[in-house]
Amino acid sequence: MNHCQLLNTTTDAHLPSDFTTSHHIHILVRKGEMRFSDGRNSFVSKKDDLVIWQMSNTIQEITYSADFEADFLIVTGEFLSQYNPEMVWASKGFVFIRTCPSFHLDDESLRLIKGDFDLFRSRQGSESPFRRDVLGRVLQIFLYDLWTVYQHGLAKMETSDRTAQLFLKFLGLVQSNVRTEREVAFYADALCITSKYLSEISRSVTGLPASQWIGFYAPYELVALLDDNSKTLSEIAELMAFSSPAAFSTYTKKLLGKTPSEYRQR
Fold this sequence. Notes:
By secondary structure, this protein is α+β, with helices and mostly antiparallel strands.
């Protein structure tokens, strides 16, 4: 497996969607357009847009125009964790990208990202025994430039090392438990803090309450289960710890705008 590699849709005969389950993907659109959904919102990305698909996102309904071309950087989670240069900005960036996976680059931002991609391209073919570490350092430069690109959105997120780490632990717990646990109190207890303090942490890092982050993750799990036609609706209700099919139906209607049956008939 390539831990970190820059590809082009034309010269390398690969599309970004070939790697959604194995890598984080950073896409610089050169021409044409790409459409996708993150399970909640739909996006259209065009020339000079930067798109970032994190592995934790549910990316679906991906389509490309006939003339679509893009450079895209794929990075494994392990490689990104090893060479992540800064905790606070990384947590802010995680949140920003999750809520805004596609954004347009101005001239200066485009110059930065193109320069980083050119550097990846020139270094990834090296036979040096230090190739991995060299690419890791290039990735660090790219991440610093990336945070610079969306610093205006991130500037509103005040945090500290402790709050950043607690918030990331909270997100990890939500991702692992949201099928059956959808109350803030459960996650606060797991982190040995109060619900009030957890909400303060969430607001300081993201501007959103902890309950809303639980609400972000829950639809991804729900949609994944509903898309699995091997499971009956009763089985899904049980997997998500609902007391009755009626409660499950009401919850699904609230999150997706459709009952479970209507969703499967869409």
